[in-house]
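Weekly puzzle thread! Below is a chain. First person to post its structure in token form gets bragging rights.
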Amino acid sequence: MSVIPPVLSLIASLTIGVADRLPEFDTPRNCEAAIKAVGSSQVQTVQQCIADERSARAEIESQWGTFAASLRDRCIDETQIGGGPSYVDILECLRLGAREKPM
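Winning reply:
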């Protein structure tokens, strides 16, 4: 039995573009970590963060197909640099990127 076909299948699955779908983030954990990082432990603040993230995700999902794949990839990559990933950050990146004029 050859190992090559399963390996090729795995490689092919990894080359599918990230922009095809919105990634799944652990929003409650990310919000708790973000609030802890700034020195606050208010439950209401964590709950507001979670609500903001869920609202941003819903808005992104409703508009996902309207953004260029390259912009979606860029925004997903950027939000995961230097901290927890955030749907609010992705949404802001998509909004700003959609306003950019091609060179």
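Puzzle host: Confirmed. Bonus trivia for everyone else. DSSP finds five helices and no strands in the chain.
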